[in-house]
Amino acid sequence: MKLWAGRFSKEIDPKTNDFNSSIPFDSRLFSEDIKGSIAHATMLGAAGIISKQDADTICDGLQGILADLQSGKLLIDPNVEDIHTFVEGELTQRIGLAGKRLHTARSRNDQVALDIRLYLKVQCDALCGQLRQLVEVLCRHALSYADAVMPGYTHLQRAQPITFGHHLLAYAEMFLRDIGRLCDAKARMDELPLGAGALAGTTYPLDRQMTADLLGFARVTNNSLDSVADRDFCVEIAAAISLAMVHLSRFSEEIILWCSWEFKFVELDDAFSTGSSIMPQKKNPDIAELVRGKSGRVFGDLMALLTMLKGLPLAYNKDMQEDKEAVFDAVDTLRLCLTAFIPMVETMKPIPENMRKAAAKGFINATDCADYLVNKGLAFRDAYKITGSLVALCIRSGHTLESLPLEDYQQVCDVFDDAVYDAISLERCVNGRNVHGAPAPENVRAQAKRILDSLSGKECMSHD
After folding, report:
1. CATH of 362-454, one of 3.40.50.720, 1.10.3720.10, 1.10.390.10, 1.10.40.30
2. Looking at domain 15-104, which of 3.40.50.300, 1.10.275.10, 3.20.20.10, 1.10.10.10 is its CATH number?
3. How confident is the model over 389-434, as pLDDT tens digits?
4. Cβ atoms of 229 and 314 closer than 8 Å
5. Contact between residue 128 and residue 182 where contact means Cβ atoms under 8 Å apart
6. Mean pLDDT, the chain, as a whole number?
7. Integer Cα distance of 360 and 21 in angstroms
């Protein structure tokens, strides 16, 4: 039976019922719905709104339903309207009249707002836990390859020397920010909406703080209209997830490039690669490609939430039923991507010798050559022009700056001496960049250790 039966004289059209139903996707909230109902019934009994005996009977019945659902003994009826209807109907069938008292001083509007907050709090912790694992993997790789010189790029052109460890820690910083955003979103939604009723609260003497304490909320909401109309937290979480997917997608693009024969900076483990149905030599980075592709799906979830909310008057509107599929899909997609991505990164094998060769051929020590001339007393613009001439000479003669003979240097500018080779050594170029945040190996190791030390056992953490 529908929870809203009584006003209507005939049954809803079956096609309308199917269109209206949310049970296919909100059934995943059964645990949150039951836990919320147990807390609500406990508070009703403590406040004298229902008898203590009825409250205890309700709680025992709900515990039994939860246990049966978790064990698979009880299956959710796909024909009911939503998970709230299913749980209340099953409860009433099991314990009789007392079950009908559960919904006292409560609406499905504040009930669903509670359920989704409870669910997303747990999911934020789970996502932060996975992101922490990824950051830890990156830091361990960074410690191992703090000295591995590679070209840093701008415009996808070789620019200046960095190390592989430094490059990986750039992504570690991105994912730490993602953790911070998810934790911030969780902190803002850590409010109990139950007690707001349909939109205007209730005349019953509820103890909302007691319910909040029972369910682990930091505080209660302050406005009954906003309590049931707010889905900002869904948007915030989807936005944080979208940025995490941006970062995963950028990283995936680099891994795809790095494992190509044109780069060959890394080799992916066979367990995280696929082959071709026709070309036996192929080893494809499908996981990275799928992660890159799934980012667009998550962006669509975020756009769906924003569009759903933008024209809604207060308070609750049925449009808001569309919040769940979008935010659930965003959460599920990021979790799925991280589940595959983390071991792929953990097992990939860097090839430092190829990185070093690419760095040597890219004239990425040209800035250091110009700086050498500046230290000899030349103006930077003059040094810049001289170094550009040397690069052109190297290209014509097939040399690098490191292999160009000293007499060729001196033909372009007579202030050069043997010390230039030390100045433009790629290792020296990297080691000399030791200001805070720069790629000197000592900095990379310190940054990696600092990050690892900051990763406490908490599900959510801030990053300063």
Report:
1. 1.10.40.30
2. 1.10.275.10
3. 999 999 999 998 989 999 999 999 999 999 999 999 999 999 999 9
4. yes
5. yes
6. 93
7. 63
Rounded Cα–Cα distance for residues 185 and 20 (Å): 29
Active site residue 40: no
Q: 173: closest CA among 387, 410, 451?
A: 451
Question: For residue 388, which of 373, 405, 403 has the smallest C-alpha distance?
Answer: 373
Concatenated DSSP letters for 385-397?
HHHHHHHHHHHHH
Measured at the CA of 133, the angle between CA 132 and CA 136, to 5 degrees, comes to 85
Calculate mean pLDDT across residues 196-216.
98
Q: Which contacts of 311-317 are long-range, i.e. CB under 8 A and separated by 24 or more positions?
A: 312/229, 314/199, 314/225, 314/226, 314/229, 315/109, 315/198, 315/199, 315/224, 315/225, 315/228, 315/229, 316/109, 316/198, 316/199, 316/228, 316/229
Which of 295, 319, 292 has the alpha carbon at shortest distance from 306? 319
Distance CA 188, CA 226 (A): 14
CATH of domain 109-147+163-354: 1.20.200.10
pTM of the model: 0.91
Task: Let me know: does 57 contact 98? Beta carbons within 8 Å.
Answer: yes
CA dist., res. 399 & res. 403, Å (int):
6
Of the residues 27, 31, 103, 155, only one is catalytic, namely: 155
Annotated catalytic residue 436: no
Active-site residue, selected from the candidate residues 276, 389, 397, 462: 276
Residue written as token pair 């979480």: 237
Q: What confidence tens digit (pLDDT) does each residue in 113-145 have? A: 999 999 999 999 999 999 999 999 999 999 999
Task: Kindly tell me if the per-residue pLDDT of 460 is higher than 70.
Answer: no
CA 418 – CA 261 distance, rounded (Å): 36
Mark out the alpha helices in 77-202 (DSSP H runs): 83-95, 108-144, 164-189
DSSP 70: H
